[in-house]
C-alpha cells in the first residue's frame, strides 16, 4: 500500500492575515487582562497603575519603567480629570530639568497644554520645585510644583496597544 502526498494547499493570504490579526487581538486582550488582574485600570486606550505607597519622583518613575510603563503623561482634558479622581497627591511625568522654567514630559515632549493650580508653578519659598504632582483635586487645574525628593503616590501609564 502506497500513500501519495496531497498537494500542499496554502490558505489564501487574506485568511492568514485575518488569522494573525485575530491571534494578535487575542494576545492583546490576554495581556490587558493580566494587567487588570494586577490592579491596573483601563481608560481611553491606556492602562494606569495608581500606587498605594509613596516614593520620590525618581523612585516612582523607576517603578513605572520596571513595569514597561512611565509616569503618566496628560494629553487630554479627560485624562486630566481621570487623574484627579483618586483624591491623593500623585506624581505625574512632568518635570523641569533645566531650571529654566521649561517643563517637559518624561518622553521628552515639551509642555503645551497645562493644568497648573492657582499661582503655580511658583518655587515656593525659593525652593527648587522641579517635579509636578496632582494636588488640588476639586479643581480641573490641579497641578502643583514641588521638590522631587518629597514622597508621593504616583500614576504609571502604559499604552494598551503595547
Automatic annotation (TrEMBL):
CDD domains: CLECT_DC-SIGN_like. Keywords: Disulfide bond, Lectin. SUPFAM superfamilies: C-type lectin-like (SSF56436). Residues 43-157 form the C-type lectin domain. This is C-type lectin domain-containing protein. It comes from Xenotaenia resolanae.
Amino acid at each position: 500500500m502506497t500513500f501519495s502526498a496531497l498537494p500542499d494547499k496554502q490558505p489564501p493570504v487574506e485568511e492568514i492575515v485575518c488569522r494573525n490579526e485575530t491571534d494578535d487581538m487575542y494576545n492583546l486582550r490576554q495581556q490587558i487582562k493580566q494587567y487588570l488582574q494586577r490592579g491596573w485600570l483601563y481608560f481611553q486606550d491606556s492602562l494606569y497603575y495608581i500606587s498605594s505607597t509613596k516614593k520620590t519622583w525618581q523612585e516612582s518613575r523607576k517603578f513605572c519603567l520596571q513595569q514597561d510603563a512611565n509616569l503618566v503623561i496628560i494629553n487630554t482634558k479627560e485624562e486630566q480629570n481621570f487623574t484627579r479622581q483618586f483624591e491623593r497627591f500623585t506624581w505625574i511625568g512632568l518635570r523641569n530639568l533645566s531650571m529654566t522654567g521649561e517643563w517637559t514630559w518624561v518622553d521628552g515632549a515639551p509642555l503645551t497644554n497645562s493644568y497648573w493650580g492657582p499661582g503655580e508653578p511658583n518655587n515656593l519659598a525659593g525652593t527648587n520645585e522641579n517635579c509636578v504632582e496632582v494636588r488640588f483635586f476639586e479643581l480641573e487645574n490641579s497641578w502643583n510644583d514641588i521638590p522631587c525628593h518629597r514622597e508621593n503616590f504616583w500614576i504609571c501609564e502604559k499604552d494598551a496597544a503595547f
